[in-house]
Design brief:
Largest sheet: 5 strands, antiparallel
Strand content: 15-25%
Helix content: under 10%
Length: 171
């Protein structure tokens, strides 16, 4: 075998450190009594296997020519003490197999061109202290049964108001 292996044993601490260079890869291993971490470096890749991987820096910049992916079998948390931006040059998709919550002091949903669609497989509730639904040209409410109710006052206004149906009950 061509290559070099450097090993340092700390018998009192139960830790063995090894660097193996074989002309193709460099493998750095730190083995303790319970855990082992390994860094494998090849000309086209670097792989880190460990129990905890931590980076502490003033700035972290991650770039990829093709794709970036991350997977966790448990929790993923991203937090910023200042502003945070998630931006996509194409489609942005967020899905959840369970509940999804979006919370903030204010929330704006805006489509710069095209429509905004909101749908639910079950009930859909829009609620606010004051709620306004406004359309630039036409607003339509459709349903098998449609109710409009005001606990103090209900008003329908317009230049022209029409009421039609098979049976009409007023009052």
């Amino acid at each position: 075998n061509k290559g070099v292996t450097i090993t340092v044993d700390d018998e009192d601490g139960g830790i063995t450190q090894t660097i193996q260079m074989n002309g193709k890869t460099i493998v750095t291993t730190c083995k303790g009594q319970d855990d082992t971490s390994t860094i494998t470096q090849a000309p086209d890749s670097i792989k880190v296997d460990c129990k905890l991987f931590s980076v502490s820096a003033e700035t972290v910049d991650i770039k990829a020519e093709k794709s970036i992916s991350g997977t966790s079998k448990k929790t993923v948390a991203l937090k910023s003490d200042d502003a945070m931006t998630i931006e996509s040059g194409k489609t942005l998709k967020m899905t959840s197999d369970d509940k999804m919550t979006v919370t903030g002091k204010a929330l704006t949903v805006n489509a710069s061109s095209g429509a905004v669609g909101v749908s639910a497989a079950s009930d859909l509730t829009l609620k606010g202290k004051n709620t306004t639904v406004e359309a630039a040209s036409a607003a339509t409410i459709k349903g098998m049964n449609v109710s409009a109710e005001g606990s103090v006052k209900a008003a329908i206004e317009g230049q022209m108001v029409s009421v039609s149906g098979q049976q009409i009950a007023l009052g």
